Inverse folding.
């Protein structure tokens, strides 16, 4: 009985930790931004080009959230005109392994779905041919 309670308690703690993580990394863009910045510091305009589909307003909001959570830092460069560069913090680098795992899973999942769709298409063509 005690062992069951410990398992439930461990599960509850894991769920809470996952919920906390998802609260910080939620949205369509944050993981992509983190992944970009894990490779190199980038300027705002570079991020806007690299992360396909994100609007300028959304990029600003997401960068502010990531900065507030100490995952990235914003550096104003001493240039004319003034430029801003974003870089991953040491704390943000702790997500590097997670972004790799998510990317690997995404690639594997895409391959799985494409393979299934091809197989379904081939079966449909075979069935159509047999019905003629």
């Amino acid at each position: 009985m005690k062992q069951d309670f410990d398992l439930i308690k461990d599960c509850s703690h894991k769920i809470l930790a996952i919920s906390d993580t998802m609260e910080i990394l939620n949205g369509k863009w944050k993981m992509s931004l983190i992944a970009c910045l894990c490779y190199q510091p980038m300027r705002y305009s570079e991020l806007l080009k690299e992360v396909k589909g994100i609007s300028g307003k959304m990029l600003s909001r997401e960068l502010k959230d990531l900065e507030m959570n100490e995952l990235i830092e914003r550096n104003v460069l001493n240039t004319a005109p003034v430029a801003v560069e974003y870089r991953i913090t040491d704390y943000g680098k702790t997500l590097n392994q997670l972004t790799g795992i998510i990317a690997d899973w995404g690639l594997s999942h895409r391959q799985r779905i494409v393979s299934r769709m091809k197989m379904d298409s081939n079966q449909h063509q075979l069935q159509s041919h047999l019905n003629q």
The longest strand covers residues 72-77.
